[in-house]
Amino acid sequence: MSPAGVSQHLTSLRAAGLVVTHRRGRTLLSARTDLAEALLSATG
Asked: Are 18 and 33 contacting, i.e. CB atoms less than 8 angstroms apart?
């Protein structure tokens, strides 16, 4: 995937409440939310 494509997907996931993004210096770190974890555990 291109960086623009990744950014677009992460924007959609953030809007859905499935990902949060934190800045560490010049780096952005994304992590799943509790909602995302619950959805993933329900499907496994």
From this structure: yes
- Domain segments of the chain: what residues? 3-43
Rg (CA), the chain: 12
Token pair, residue 7, equals: 């950014």
Q: Are 29 and 22 in contact (CB under 8 A)?
A: yes
pTM for the whole structure: 0.80
- pLDDT (tens digit per residue) in 2-41: 999 999 999 999 999 999 999 999 999 999 999 999 999 9
